[in-house]
């Protein structure tokens, strides 16, 4: 009986604890950053222990909760997108100032373009007109006086009176409500309800999926080697889907209204091309060496290259007519790019823990900062997509 009890003691699972880098002999699968010295979850080899660690302080706590909060934020944005966007009356009230701003900017840009185009012609002909003006002035003056003398007779006045009356009737009819074609004054001609929201839903879904996968991976990474590898694939899948989903709203709304089938084909080309590239990147992540800590730079570069493919449709659109309508979203997209690049640089270089080993074990490490940059970039992208969406609502397709 004593031998059996002794045997039970021998197979008993070791106690779970928060350990240090030097205690990872049997947990090599969570050894990733030698500059993080403490906060490692040891012997958290059951789902119950893993879930309990959600409310503990360790070196993955900030990584888990930063993206869990991001999931909640994007769920709120999903509710906003479902409840408030694409409702004509609310759109008209909320975005009339934005529409006026876009109209003014468009008019100013067109005026500047026309002025630049005709400036050279005006300058070249000004000298000729100046020389001709002196000689034509006298002749013009004589003809004006002659025409005035002929029209001052009663017979000429009677001949022109029906024509003047007819013109007055036409002008009055154009000024009536039936011919009021200005959207600002006549709500029934509003076109804000015709733009689909599904590209926005695609991006929100991809962002939510990415953040959730990231949180799950960092939460379960200490469970076992097998589960660590499987969850890492889920994490890479989330990143790939986020990059692919991010391109849907900008491409769809900017190329939305072009009448030519040629441009519609480009929408399909860009969206399907980015989706295929993301799938290829995800497949590459299954290579065993892709998981190694010394491949950190390759993982960062690979996802950056995938994201940079989105520049191709952007450059294409910049050469299309009236692309300046969407300039109001450029700031948000620029901030998104800066956030992603800054996050990748910090993640790859492992700053600041590289210079202060052991000082950023629980919070403030490069991975923590990378998570915040990813969330910030996704939010910048969402607000940029809203700008593009509202701009598309305020533009009429026949303008192209």
TrEMBL record:
| Transmembrane region(s) | 64-85, 198-220, 236-255, 267-288, 300-320, 332-349, 369-389
Going by the entry's taxonomy, the superkingdom of the source organism is recorded as Eukaryota
Q: Which UniProt keywords apply?
A: Membrane, Metal-binding, Transmembrane, Transmembrane helix, Zinc
Q: How does it sit in the membrane?
A: Multi-pass membrane protein
In alphabetical order, the GO MF annotations are: metal ion binding; signaling receptor activity
Q: Which GO terms describe its cellular component?
A: membrane
Q: Name one Pfam family in it.
A: HlyIII
Binding of Zn(2+): at which residues?
218, 367, 371
Q: Which InterPro entries match?
A: AdipoR/HlyIII-related (IPR004254)
Q: Where in the cell is it found?
A: Membrane
Primary localization: membrane
The entry assigns this protein to a family as follows: Belongs to the ADIPOR family.
Q: What is this protein called?
A: Haemolysin-III related
Specify the species: Stentor coeruleus
């Amino acid at each position: 009986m004593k031998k059996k009890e002794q045997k039970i003691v021998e197979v008993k699972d070791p106690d779970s604890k928060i350990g240090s880098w030097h205690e990872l002999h049997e947990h090599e699968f969570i050894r990733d950053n030698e500059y993080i010295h403490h906060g490692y979850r040891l012997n958290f080899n059951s789902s119950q222990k893993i879930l309990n660690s959600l409310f503990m302080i360790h070196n993955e706590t900030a990584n888990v909760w930063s993206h869990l909060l991001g999931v909640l934020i994007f769920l709120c944005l999903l509710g906003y997108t479902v409840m408030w966007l694409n409702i004509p009356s609310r759109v008209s009230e909320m975005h009339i100032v934005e529409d006026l701003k876009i109209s003014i900017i468009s008019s100013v840009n067109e005026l500047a373009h026309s002025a630049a185009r005709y400036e050279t012609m005006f300058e070249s002909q000004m000298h000729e007109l100046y020389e001709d003006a002196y000689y034509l002035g006298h002749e013009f003056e004589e003809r004006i006086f002659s025409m005035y003398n002929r029209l001052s007779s009663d017979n000429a006045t009677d001949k022109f009176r029906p024509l003047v009356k007819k013109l007055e009737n036409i002008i009055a009819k154009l000024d009536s409500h039936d011919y009021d074609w200005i959207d600002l004054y006549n709500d029934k001609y509003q076109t804000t309800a015709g733009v689909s929201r599904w590209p926005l839903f695609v991006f929100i879904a991809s962002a939510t999926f990415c953040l959730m996968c990231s949180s799950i991976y960092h939460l379960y990474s200490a469970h076992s080697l097998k589960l660590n590898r499987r969850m890492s694939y889920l994490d890479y899948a989330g990143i790939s889907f986020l990059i692919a989903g991010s391109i849907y709203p900008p491409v769809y709304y900017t190329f939305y209204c072009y009448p030519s089938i040629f441009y519609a084909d480009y929408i399909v080309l860009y969206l399907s091309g980015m989706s295929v590239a993301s799938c290829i990147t995800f497949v590459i992540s299954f290579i065993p060496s892709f998981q190694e800590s010394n491949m950190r730079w390759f993982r960062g570069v690979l996802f950056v290259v995938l994201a940079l493919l989105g520049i191709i449709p952007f450059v294409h659109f910049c050469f299309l007519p009236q692309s300046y309508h969407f300039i109001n979203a450029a700031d948000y997209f620029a901030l998104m790019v800066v956030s992603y690049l800054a996050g990748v640089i910090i993640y790859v270089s492992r700053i600041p823990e590289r210079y202060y080993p052991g000082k950023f074990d629980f919070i403030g490490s490069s991975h923590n900062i990378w998570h915040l940059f990813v969330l910030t970039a996704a939010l910048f992208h969402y607000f940029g997509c809203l700008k593009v969406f509202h701009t598309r609502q305020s533009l009429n397709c026949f303008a192209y």
